[in-house]
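A.,

Following up on our hallway conversation. Structure tokens first:
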């Protein structure tokens, strides 16, 4: 699953990124205006980015920028503001062996876009994220308006290789985008109403429909559940269903690079995890929440961040089965594909309690 960058971006289904000059993840001009990333092999000049002159940024634009860079794994740490400049941890190289704060990050004074560059010679990752200037559409999404159609045999075969049945795909409304080359669509619904859609090609290119609500994938499946499972990607949610867990939902975006050492922000400023607050009415009903995130470091960091907000006293964390003497399987679909539904179910049932030994900050309850 899902959380270098191309690998982590596979866990960010809500974002399409163009990386230049060593390859492209997309060609849409509109999306390139939204996010552009590049990598250079030469060390960029170590010059402080200059603040752009301009008025105060609109709060909506600022939050949009925060959400976009969070999808890339960039943690601003401090509340973002127009003119913000800081040295952060690079999600591409993690700061190398010395764990340097090598990513120079800047939000221009107008708040219209952010830019960054890693100054480590071995990395040089750079990019820009732009706030959309147009107001979001209030037109209700429908399968017809999004041009969704039944899955082709090719895509059904793709899921079959991952041990996901056609029945599971149909129950979850998985379709494909008309006219696109093998673009799988994952509909996001709230009370049966389409509120967003994420897309993924077989080549692991990801993007989302404009105006997609920040919510959990499979929200309606956990609306009345006392025990729920949260995973790190849409395919893992489908995998859990093959093991008998309907009461499962997926986060809509990728994992953070690390666990934040700062206290919990207020709900209105908790932009990277806004989807949790938007689903508060569903989540507060659960007395037991199993976090089945990826087994890698970012996935484990995501589990910690989720537990801090959901309340560790009601959270359990899954440890995936061993692959060999040196490694473990990374996510639910890997376990389903290689070990089968019984082993996947056992992994979920044997999750470890995350209950703290002391009091925790307030959370989503």
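Then the amino acids I'd put at each of the 365 positions:
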């Amino acid at each position: 699953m899902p959380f270098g960058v191309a690998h982590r971006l596979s866990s960010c289904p809500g974002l399409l990124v163009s990386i230049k000059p060593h390859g492209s993840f997309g060609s849409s001009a509109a999306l390139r205006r939204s996010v552009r990333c590049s990598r250079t092999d030469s060390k960029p000049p170590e010059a402080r980015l200059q603040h752009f002159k301009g008025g105060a940024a609109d709060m909506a634009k600022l939050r949009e920028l925060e959400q976009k860079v969070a999808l890339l794994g960039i943690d601003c740490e401090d509340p973002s503001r127009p003119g913000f400049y800081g040295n952060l941890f690079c999600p591409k190289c993690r700061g190398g062996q010395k764990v340097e704060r090598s990513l120079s990050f800047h939000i221009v004074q107008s708040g219209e876009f952010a830019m960054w560059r890693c100054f480590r010679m071995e990395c040089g990752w750079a990019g820009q994220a732009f706030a959309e200037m147009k107001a979001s559409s209030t037109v209700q999404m429908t399968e017809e308006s999004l041009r969704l159609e039944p899955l082709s045999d090719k895509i059904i075969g793709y899921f079959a290789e991952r041990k996901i049945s056609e029945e599971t795909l149909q129950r979850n409304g998985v379709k494909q985008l008309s006219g696109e080359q093998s673009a799988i669509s994952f509909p996001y619904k709230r009370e049966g109403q389409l509120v967003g859609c994420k897309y993924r090609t077989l080549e692991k290119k990801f993007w989302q429909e404009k105006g997609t609500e920040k919510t959990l994938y499979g929200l309606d499946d956990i609306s009345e559940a006392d025990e729920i499972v949260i995973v790190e990607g849409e395919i893992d949610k489908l995998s859990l269903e093959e093991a008998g867990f309907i009461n499962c939902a997926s986060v809509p975006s990728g994992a953070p690079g690390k666990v934040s050492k700062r206290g919990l922000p207020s709900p209105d400023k908790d932009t990277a995890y806004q989807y949790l607050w938007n689903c508060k009415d569903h989540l507060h009903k659960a007395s037991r929440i199993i976090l089945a995130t990826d087994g890698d470091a970012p996935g484990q960091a995501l589990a910690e961040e989720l537990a801090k907000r959901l309340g560790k006293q009601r959270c359990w964390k899954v440890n995936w089965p061993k692959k060999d003497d040196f490694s473990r399987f990374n996510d639910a679909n890997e376990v389903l594909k290689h070990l089968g539904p019984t082993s996947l179910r056992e992994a979920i049932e044997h999750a470890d309690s995350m209950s703290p030994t002391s009091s925790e900050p307030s959370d989503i309850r």
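The mean pLDDT is 80. Curious whether your intuition agrees with the design.

B.
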